[in-house]
Amino acid sequence: MPKLRLGVLIGGRSVEHEVSVVTGYQVVGAADRAKYDVLPVFIGRDNVWYIGDDLADIAFFRQDHPPLNRLTRVFPAPDAAAGKLNLIEADAGGLLKKPKVWPLDVVFPASHGTFVEDGTLQGMLEMAGVPYASSDVRGSAVGMDKELTKAVLAVAGLPHLPYRIVHRSGWESGREPQMMALEAALPYPMFIKPAILGSSVAVGRADDRRGLDAALDLALRFCDRALVEPALSDPIEINCSVLDGDPPITSALEQPVSGGKLLTFDEKYKGGGNKGGAKGSGMAGAERIIPAPIPDEQAAQIRDLAVKTFIAIGAGGVARVDFLISGEGMIYVNELNNIPGSMAFYLWEPLGKSFGDLIDRMVERALEVNRRRNRTTFAFEANLLAGR
């Protein structure tokens, strides 16, 4: 049986670009070469796509200014008839030269943030009819948007914290009324987050109006909406990964070690690690306790809520659902990460599933979902233009 050409998408035009490079190379390193012809595909900060031998090693990106001119620039071209995504050589050297084409059998999005995790990329992959190992357009868009996630949680009857949304346009036209409305609705301290972003970028905590003003200023630089919610007193954060299937299955639970405060970008991605992995290896390098030291009853409830959240949002591939437990023992769904850092492989290893096993299952599921999708009728010929 011929190998599948597995295109692993790395990078992207996102503030999470560097985290995406780390996750991408973890996938490249763990994919089974006996099963896949692995092709790393780098998406630059300007959304330009590249392939090339230099992408075989992450060391290429450890340079201050990686020489992208050594790579081959390519155009992604959907080929729905064949069910593939073709990468077409962009610099063919003249009109008479036939460009090279690299067809991808399966696409593995290993990037985080805008354009790659929010449904934008998934829409192009749907047009190509190519199998891909992530949430679909709907699940990606809803999971990436914290406001939409809250709305779906509410409709599904899943527990979540109260919240308010601040729009950039409203903030710029009148800060004081916005802050007064927030103070009337929510108690201090508050957490302020860009509505569409991840990796703790531009997330802030406000203990008073001055802090609220500064946190909203920062969050609204990165998104046109900010989500504001109350900060629980001494909460416990618990994370659970969910793998798509019939039914979806859950991983081991983790408790990130935050020292009782908000985990910053640096703590998540530059800190040392213990059971999760080596220092500097993305989310695998963050400090965490696995399994989470919580009662079995709470653990079972979190696993049940994780699957219900995964299904309600319409997620696919592998996702991570993050929870907060209040001092009174109340459990709240915080958010869902469609493409979690390091693909959350460290939550599956305690169950005997290696990173390679996780990739295999995600690829198998991508092929399965694609077969189901192809059974749907997408075109209807009514012959409306005949005789006109």
Task: Briefly say what this structure is.
This protein has 388 residues and is of the alpha+beta class. It has helices at residues 17-30, 120-128, 137-144, 146-156, 168-173, 175-185, 209-222, 265-269, 296-313, 355-373, and strands spanning 4-11, 36-43, 49-51, 72-79, 84-89, 101-104, 106-109, 164-167, 190-194, 204-206, 225-230, 236-243, 249-256, 288-289, 318-325, 331-337.
Structure characterization notes:
The protein is built from ten helices and 16 strands. Helix 3 (137-144) packs across helix 4 (146-156) and helix 4 crosses helix 9 (296-313). It is α+β, with helices and mostly antiparallel strands and 388 residues long. The chain has helices spanning 17-30, 120-128, 137-144, 146-156, 168-173, 175-185, 209-222, 265-269, 296-313, 355-373; strands at 4-11, 36-43, 49-51, 72-79, 84-89, 101-104, 106-109, 164-167, 190-194, 204-206, 225-230, 236-243, 249-256, 288-289, 318-325, 331-337. It has three domains: 4-132, Rossmann fold; 143-159 and 233-367, ATP-grasp fold, B domain (D-amino Acid Aminotransferase, Chain A, domain 1, 2-Layer Sandwich), CATH 3.30.470; 164-230, Dna Ligase, domain 1, CATH 3.30.1490. 30% of the residues lie in helices and 24% in strands. The longest helix has 19 residues, at 355-373. It is globular.
